[in-house]
Design brief:
CATH class of the largest domain: Alpha Beta
Radius of gyration: 22 Å
Number of strands: 23
Bound molecules: flavin-adenine dinucleotide
CATH topology of the largest domain: FAD/NAD(P)-binding domain
Helix content: 10-25%
CATH superfamily of the largest domain: FAD/NAD(P)-binding domain
CATH architecture of the largest domain: 3-Layer(bba) Sandwich
Distance between the termini: 27 Å
Number of domains: 2
Shape: globular
Strand content: 15-25%
Oligomer: single chain
Length: 512
């Protein structure tokens, strides 16, 4: 006999954790299954060698590339999912991101819902995750029904100087929307201490808003919510007619267990959710569950992204650097009428963070000097959905096929920004791709994974309907990054969270 619930949510990241929070007061009996545990609070949380070189918080799972090579994915399995280590830059997609957009490398498809449909949920998600920002500066900012719930985070002096130079030259840098618990007017009583161990690190003092701290833990106060950690869902099993999920098979405490629910929500992240549907193939669904369209696992996107160390003779003592972003080239530039992408500051790097990308012979003191004199940048451009960029399962193992596309605008963006910065600072030196300390993020960097179960109105070409219910199976939903028809160029999590709130509202209506 399997324990029975109203709703089972598989995964507790930006999608699953946010959905849980939305449903927690519904009175419904909710079971949350998370393969990971709570991320430990320990000194290593803020040790960059442990975090970036030893990949302490990444899974040890090995996937395969299309070429059959081992892939060590930069992803973690924890309560809160990848929001435990994210940079907490919570952006809304732009209005035009929901439309069909012509890129230099092809077409970014239209979404079945539009920005106006998401606006109220973006507002709700920004409140839930305590986002700081300031409206009216970003030239590409979409319509907002109100100001950010919390005031923008100030720039430290070196970044303020950079900001002022940019403005002086006609650029429009804006305050990064950031999800932390900080009151700059009362720093003594604030949780966030504006440290340099935020972007990419777990927050040891729980001052970063993530799906664990802001959503899962508060929900556990409710008697109707049960969380099982270390509970890996292995397979979804359908009823004899194949139209519903009958029960799910879970490995919990090394034992096989079964659970049943009226509604099953898969929220394992775009790669693992697709993998779970494909692994659950049965006689009624030989290509995998919810896969009559053949689209499950396809159209995987992860952004074209690059990190760049901007070296200068001037020291950069900034601690919390992630306060500035630029969208001046989001939709292109004179002479290039195609989208280029988004620019933001990274968390401040240190020598242990940059050393894996430096030649092994580089002495430690050189790395320290470089880190202390650099401003660290992050570029993201849109990769387009391509059917052959896909998640597959072979012998139970995840295979990830991915070829980059749409690179012209991306390369142009990085070159343009080097040029802009070069004009600002005399004596400014940039180390370029292939030299060292500036690099395109490789396939293992699956941080921004989306698109593997896209939503839409046509069951022949999409996996999910507009409520993120699978077209094929009546009680099966996918509520994480999988649903994106296109990725846009800003960070994806706020859209995943907003969508989870939207689907949560639908589920509450449905369950009454
Ligand atoms: C270093 C880093 C920095 C980032 N910075 C930003 C940023 O600044 N802004 C931004 O918007 N985004 C950022 N991201 C991306 C962001 O973390 C993801 O977009 C977001 O977490 C995805 O949410 P999700 O719900 O789709 O998946 P996840 O957050 O990955 O959650 C999936 C959950 O499902 C669980 N799970 C998977 N399979 C199973 C299974 N079979 N059984 C049970 N549980 C399962 C996993 O353990 C995990 O908890 C960053 C990511 C990384 C890694």
């Amino acid at each position: 006999m399997a324990d029975t619930y109203d709703i089972i949510i598989i995964g507790t990241g930006a999608g699953g954790g946010t959905l849980l929070h939305k449903l927690r007061n519904s009175g419904k009996k909710i079971l949350v299954l998370e393969r990971g545990g709570f991320l430990p609070r320990e000194k290593e949380n803020w040790n960059s060698k442990e975090v970036f070189q030893n990949e302490r918080y990444h899974t040890k799972e090995v996937w395969k590339t299309a070429e059959g090579k081992d892939l060590h994915p930069g992803t973690g399995y924890w309560v809160g999912g990848n929001t435990k280590v994210y940079g907490a830059a919570l952006f809304r997609l732009r209005e035009r991101d929901f439309e069909k957009v012509e890129h230099a490398g092809g077409i970014s498809p239209e979404w079945p819902l539009k920005y106006k449909d998401y606006e109220p949920y973006y507002t709700e998600a920004e409140k839930l995750y305590c986002v700081h920002g300031k409206m009216g500066i970003d030239p590409t900012e979409p319509f907002r029904s109100g100001e950010y719930p919390f005031p923008h985070l100030s720039h430290e002096p070196r970044i303020q100087e950079l900001h002022d130079h940019l403005v002086h030259r006609g650029h429009q840098p804006f305050y990064m929307p950031i999800a932390v618990k900080l009151n700059e007017a009362d720093r003594l009583n604030s949780e966030c201490i504006r440290c340099n161990t935020c972007d990419g690190y777990p927050c040891m003092i729980h001052a970063k808003s993530d799906a664990d701290i802001n959503c899962v833990r508060p929900s556990l106060a409710n008697d109707n919510v049960t969380l099982l950690t270390g509970a890996k869902v292995e397979r979804l099993v359908t009823t004899a007619n194949g139209k519903e999920i009958d029960y799910i098979e879970v490995t919990y405490n090394d034992e096989p267990v079964r659970f049943k629910a009226s509604i099953v929500v898969v929220a394992g992240g775009a790669i693992n959710s697709a993998a779970l549907l494909l692994k659950s193939a049965d006689d009624n669904h030989p290509q995998g569950l919810a896969n009559s369209s053949g689209q499950v696992g396809r159209n995987f996107m992860k952004h074209l992204s690059a990190a760049m160390l901007g070296l200068s003779t001037t020291p950069n003592p900034t601690k919390f650097q992630k306060t500035l972003a630029v969208n001046d080239y989001y939709w292109g530039e004179p002479g290039f009428a195609f989208p280029m992408g988004h620019i933001q500051l990274l968390g401040k790097s240190d020598k242990d963070q940059i050393s894996p990308d430096a030649p092994a012979i580089t002495p430690g003191f050189v790395l320290s000097e470089m880190a202390s004199h650099s401003i660290d940048w992050w570029f993201t451009s849109e990769d387009l959905p391509v059917p052959d960029n896909r998640v597959q399962i072979a012998n139970g193992q995840i295979h990830l096929d991915y070829k980059v596309n749409n690179t012209e605008g991306f390369e142009r963006l990085i070159n343009r920004w080097k040029h802009v910065l070069g004009e600002i600072y005399t004596g400014h030196i940039f180390l370029d791709h292939g030299i060292y300390l500036s690099k395109d993020i490789p396939l293992a960097g699956v941080a921004h994974q989306v698109g593997t179960c896209r939503f839409g109105t046509d069951p022949a070409t999409t996996v999910l309907d507009i409520h993120c219910k699978t077209h094929d199976i009546e009680n099966l939903y996918v509520v994480d990054g999988s649903f994106f028809p296109s990725i846009g160029a800003v960070n994806p999590s706020l859209t995943i969270m907003a969508n989870a709130l939207r689907v949560g509202e639908h589920l509450m209506d449905l369950l009454g």
